[in-house]
Amino acid sequence: MECSTSDVIGSDSYCIRLQWWGTTQTGTEAEGTTNSGNSTEVAETDKEGGAEEAVADVPDLGGRVIKVEAWWDLKPAGETASDKARLDKIAEVEKKYNVTIEFVNVPFEEYMNKFTTSALAGEPFADIVQMEYKSALPAVLKGQLLTLSEFTTPENNINQEANLITKFPAIAGNNYAFESPTSIGLGLHYNRDLFKKMSLPDPQELYNKGEWDWDKFMELAKQATKDTDNDGKIDVYGFSGWAIDVLRHFTAANGGTIVDDENSKEGLSDPKTIEAAEFVKRLYNVENVVKVKTGDKTNWEESNTFKDGDVALFTAAEWQLGDLTFSVGVVPIPNGPQGSEEVTYANNAASAKFIPKGVEDPQIVYQIYEETFDIPQIEEYPGQDYLESLYADEKDIAIIREHIAGTGRILLDDAYTGYPIGDYVNDIIKNNASVTATAEKYKAQAQAAIDKLGKQ
Question: pTM value?
């Protein structure tokens, strides 16, 4: 979903926002000047009409450190024009409010433990936290995160143009998450060099002609699986990926979901999920078009197998594409018989920014953060520099922006302790068990995991 650009917010809006925060106490003295208590006075007099406009001043936060934490460095690197402009804006905002904005990188394996421990103590470890949705759901149910309505006003950009900061999808029926606009999404990538070498039809051309579906995908995967040097061994494969994520994505592309979070219902026995699982099982165990480098069909390391350069099609996120020795293209994951173009992949790695409960003056914290993005729009669209650093062909970027971005369905199966997605896939893919029987086997366990979280 592409966000429109607009003019930056005028300074007059600060009056409304700061009054809503309750941080100013403005009175008018006899001489017509404005007394703003501890704030520096700002007043304008209309000389022609004699009207006076009192404008609330910016609060001085006395050198407060505002921490923004993630499991990577969120501070702009300063390598692009947009990065440099934002670094300048951060410095300007720090001076304006008398604060220091500190970007803290906490190792992923330590991150949620630190959050949980600090949340239970009532002393959040940061003012703004990056958090995966699957981790945010339990935190929401425990009352550890603030809703957007608790720290934004109708005048904030997020509730207006949303070109600086945008709302992320709701969790448990309410909005908590925010993030800068983006134009990325997970697609099905393909090795362009292999496709040209084998004279296979370009998936993007098939997609543009309306011929991109499960049948065509399977046809290409079968055609690409070959013994190219005639030594009796397959040396080029049609597909690779981490089996659990492959099932997640193809289920979403078939209109289903591994977990129906909205209705708190397991999705393993959903007919759409079963149909997708049958298709994935066929990929691995019937057509045998999948390269398994580790020897374990469900090993998560298979998500990087495509990097060897001998796989034609693969599911991968854009951040996995660095330092490749071959050219890549991208198309949406093909829709199944029950799917639609509105949903093409499962976004089980979705993450965004949140403000924990207990943060002091969360309205001011959010306002400061939002203002750091109030810079001239240098990029033609959100994420331009990032996408162009990964994709050399403009056609790939167009596909992502127009047909992949915004088509991910948030999936939270990992949020439910004991949800048997791993066992489900192991039985189907590694043990070649019946999909229907496997769904029936794990249905009760899956529902129990959902119900347990809901009772916390």
Answer: 0.83
